[in-house]
Write a structure and sequence with these properties.
This protein is an alpha+beta fold and 322 residues long. It has 9 helices and 19 strands. A 6-stranded mixed β-sheet has the order 10-11-12-15-16-19, sandwiched between helices. Strands 1, 13, 14, 17 and 18 form a 5-stranded antiparallel β-sheet that branches. It has a 4-stranded antiparallel β-sheet with strand order 6-5-7-8.
Length: 322
């Protein structure tokens, strides 16, 4: 198959560049990538995945979706999808194999501890907004799961609600958020910051390409804020956390973030494929590189997968006490 040969050669060529964030996407992969960034997560089983060493691990199981009903748990490592070994595949590749048409079934083999578990799960349309607001007494908890095209507007709406209802504190939960659009990160960070406050700088080498600054639309300015981070908080999440921490707008609780501080530019190719290429790096307002270093919490607290599966959240508990 000439198309498969061409796609395989293209992937190999791009991988040879040695940058794990530079990627060649086939037309089908590019279509799925663009759908997710536009807020359309499509049909699947309702899990969020992240790379942990060489393996792809379940980091969150969405409520009221088929994975939860089947018994899949955070911490499960994905070994096979429909009997195909995916143990060395990327997160994007594993995700694309799990997704499919609503009503179809996917067979998944998982490693849980020392045990291999087999599941047959029916795909369904995923209901998973990028932003959710919950309330606990006088504390508002703003959870942002990804930075897609709807995130800025949703976060702004909830920020106005938080301000109007007179909450004393807001907890911004960015755990498990792998990033997305930088424009959405700018809108979110601006909810707390003075107009023109520096959010992040984009640099190539020592040359500053662009400085992203706050818009001045800041209904949460001055409100006591705690950010929750973990090892899978990445990219746009780290931009927001770094900006609020270094502008003294928030305290960070949890674990050091992932450390993805690179900029990708997208190039659309003639047959619908997309080339995603690392072209620059992100630096915090204090000129610290995010890449490979991450954002350090002010208060380090671990939350294990056993905690998650037992319904315990020591990080959130600590954030409420600050």
């Amino acid at each position: 198959d000439q198309q498969k040969l061409t796609e395989g050669a293209s992937k190999g060529l791009v991988e040879a560049a040695g940058d794990k964030y530079t990627e060649y996407m086939t037309a089908k992969e590019a279509e799925q990538f663009n759908k997710i960034l536009s807020g359309d997560v499509g049909a699947g089983i309702g899990v969020e995945l992240a790379k942990d060493g060489q393996s792809v691990k379940v980091v969150r199981v969405l409520a009221k979706n088929s994975a939860q009903s089947a018994g899949i748990l955070p911490g499960d490592i994905i070994l096979k999808v429909n009997d195909e070994d995916v143990s060395k595949k990327s997160t994007a590749e594993v995700s694309s194999k799990i997704r499919g048409d609503a009503g179809t079934t996917v067979k998944i083999s998982l490693l849980r501890g020392q045990d291999i578990k087999e599941f047959s799960v029916t795909r369904a349309k995923i209901e998973n907004p990028s932003v959710e607001l919950s309330k606990n007494g006088d504390v508002a908890i703003l959870s942002i799961y990804r930075f897609d095209s709807e995130t800025g507007a949703l976060a702004k709406k909830y920020a106005e609600e938080i301000k109007n209802e007179g909450f004393s504190k807001v907890i911004l939960d960015l755990r498990g958020n792998g990033g997305g659009y930088v424009q959405a990160a700018k809108t979110v960070a601006s909810l707390w910051l003075e107009k023109n406050a520096l959010i992040v700088s984009e640099k190539t080498g020592s040359k500053t390409i662009e400085e992203i600054r706050a818009t001045g639309n800041n209904p949460l300015k001055g409100m006591k804020t705690v950010i929750l981070l973990d090892g899978t908080s990445a990219s746009a999440s780290e931009i927001v956390a770094g900006a609020l921490k270094e502008n003294k707008a928030a305290t960070i609780v949890g674990e050091k973030s992932y450390g993805k501080g690179v900029v990708q530019s997208l190039y659309n190719l003639p047959m619908g494929e997309t080339l995603k290429v690392t072209t620059a790096r992100w630096y915090t307002p204090f000129d610290h590189s995010i890449n490979k270093t991450g954002i350090e919490p002010d208060q380090t607290i671990e939350r294990t997968f056993d905690d998650v599966n037992a319904g315990k959240d020591p990080q959130l508990d600590a954030a409420k006490k600050i």
